[in-house]
Amino acid sequence: MILSCASSEKRNAILNAALELLASCGFHGFSIKQLAAKAGVATGTVYLYFEDRDSMIRELHLKILQQFAEAIFVDQDTEKPLADQHHRICCNLWSFLNNNPSVLLSKAQFDHLPPDILRSHREDAWSMFAPLRDLFAKGRASGEIKDLQDDVLASLSFEPYMYLARQQLIGVIQVDPNRLCEIITASWDAIATPKAD
User: Fold this and answer.
1) What is the three-class DSSP state of 33?
2) Angle CA(9)–CA(4)–CA(13) in degrees, nearest 5?
3) Under a CB-based contact definition with an 8 Å cutoff, are residues 169 and 105 in contact?
4) How many of the other CB atoms lie within 10 Å of CB of 165?
């Protein structure tokens, strides 16, 4: 049991170190030796847990998707109106991005993973984000949300937060709570069906 716990800690240390290095150096900007040093393990230890760099990146990508999904659905109440549910997801998303700068800064790296990896993770990702799919499906069925594919709705609604959080992180903009509410309203408007006058 102790060995299993220690193994899990080392694996997580390697993944966390990889995330930090990805955020600061990019995929090809660090060696396995540098990764091992940052994780506080021997270089050979990395290969005990991961076959190669690609397998480690694949696992890290899935781990981040899981953390992301867990974070954005905190306090989600599916009995509330869809706009309120969307608002809660956006607030959680904003908080997650601002509290996890390494995830935010490494996003571009993950966006440029080889297409076969992205395709293989797509179904895993959507299963993790099932509450979001449910929200979109309910919205389309009720006519509250535009009749667009889930990927399109997610992109219109949530991608801007990635960009804005990065701009805030590097000091280009500052989003205060009032401005965040305006942004959330705008992101809902991007996917909501316009109300008839």
Assistant:
1) helix
2) 15
3) yes
4) 24
Tokens of 179: 């401005």
Amino acid identity of 31?
Answer: S
pTM: 0.83
For 21, the token pair is 């290095």
Q: What distance in Å separates the CA atoms of residue 42 and residue 137, rounded to the nearest whole number?
A: 48
In the block, residue with structure tokens 């205060």: 176
**Which ranges of 26-52 would DSSP assign to H, the alpha helix?**
32-39, 43-49
- Give me the amino acid identity at 18: A
**What CA–CA distance (Å, rounded) separates 89 from 73?**
6
Retrieve residue 128's tokens: 């993790």
Looking at residue 1, its pLDDT comes to: 39
Placement of tokens 């993790």 in the chain: 128
Retrieve residue 136's tokens.
Answer: 């979109």
pLDDT band at 2 (very low <50, low <70, confident <90, very high): very low
Q: Name the residue with tokens 């006519």.
A: 143
pLDDT tens-digit readout, 139-180: 999 999 999 999 999 999 999 999 999 999 999 999 999 999
Residue written as tokens 């009749």? 147
| Token pair belonging to 47 | 């290969």
Nearest CA to 13 out of 1, 21, 2 is that of 21
pLDDT surpasses 90 at 25:
no
